[in-house]
Amino acid sequence: MDPADIESLERATVxxxxxxxxxxxxxxxxPLDDGxxxxxxxxxxxxHDLDASALDEIEAAYRGRxxxxxxxxxxxxGLAAVVTELSRRGYVGEKPTLxxxxxxxxxxxxAVPFADLLDHPDEAWGAVFLGEGxxxxxxxxxxxxxxxxxxxxxxxxxxxGRTVAxxxxxxxxxxxGVHGMRTAVDxxxxxxxxxxLALFGAAAEARQVNRIFLQVEGGNPAQNLYKRAGFEEAWxxxxxx
Length: 241
Hints:
Layout: H1 3-16, E1 21-25, E2 28-32, E3 44-45, H2 55-63, E4 71-74, H3 80-88, E5 93-103, H4 104-108, E6 116-118, H5 123-128, H6 136-147, E7 152-159, E8 162-172, E9 175-183, H7 192-206, E10 211-217, H8 222-228, E11 232-240
Parallel strand pairs: 9-10
Antiparallel strand pairs: 1-2, 2-3, 4-11, 5-10, 5-11, 6-7, 7-8, 8-9
């Protein structure tokens, strides 16, 4: 992936989670939020070949607003100096996460896209994030931030008048991004995630957006589904807090 692709993907990632304010400092995006979404409150380099010279200013930006500094850094050789300096300052890397990308055409073919595509999420869509098995505080924050995304569509699968699976596809900077995939605990394993992915792939094709990305924690079995849908690993990152 070339430098322009990396920058556009990171800009699309932050934009999709709609932090209240985003700064740009020394080649980094610095989203400012006090909620639960890591991507919305962790500084991220726009290139994979930066040094650690901007860290002081980034830390000051967070602390000056009463926020705890945090960083989201790819595990690549060009950012080794950043990781070394963060470690020296006492930060600890955690929550390894994969960034995966796929052609929209391939994703659209993973299943029959039998689901509702909404311009605006309804109450039943948001209720899935607050259901059994999900942290209600985190769920409420994700609903709020994903609803505030500047250009997004919302997928929902209904059964008998009940919404049982949801997700979001955001658009920006030449990418479609998949976020907020949730299935009710008692309906997992029903293939709903595949249907939502296919729906989002088709939505991207309809807008002539050819590339889709998503992020998934390392070890999450959903990786198997994403690979079947055509997603391949672009890079891995960790949060440094």
